Amino acid sequence: SRHRTLMNVFDKSPSVDKGAFVAPNASITGDVHVGRGSSIWYGCVLRGHSAVLHGCTVEDEAYIGTSATVLDGAHVEKHAMVASGALVRQNTRIPSGEVWGGNPAKFLRKVTEEERVFFSSSAVEYSNLAQVHATENAKNLDETEFKTLLNKKNARDTEYDSVLDDLTLPENVPKAA
């Protein structure tokens, strides 16, 4: 499996308390802190923006704000903006050059020229960042020193690892190498 539960973004790295549960297929990326007693469940992605896009279309250079939700059949056109925390209902179309916000989302105002320039430059920056992530993900685990990072971020030590090694597993469950 190529999945990495924890991943740095440049100098930003996740921090996970050893008293937290993180499902093996969750992803925690960048400057995210998971405290004691927290639980990050199967398939969750934590990276700071928390937007949910479900069965929708988002055109190039559209902007989706932090914690926004865009539902099935919705269509966000180029240079449109969904404000932070907005809920875009099913089958809603947000025209180019408009800012929508609220719950449910509705037209608020026109996009400014400064925002339109920001959308374009932000798209380029994210594209470049995606290339960095693709390069990092293409490396094998030895190159990334992933085990060291995982142990550090989970505050696990040699004693903890030796306890895991000594666990008796059912015969049909393979032991990790």
TrEMBL record:
Membrane topology value: Peripheral membrane protein
Protein name (record): Uncharacterized protein
Record carries keyword Cell cycle: no
Organism of this sequence: Capsella rubella
Any single GO CC term annotated in Swiss-Prot or TrEMBL for this entry: mitochondrial membrane
Main location: mitochondrion
Localization annotation: Mitochondrion membrane
Keywords on record: Mitochondrion
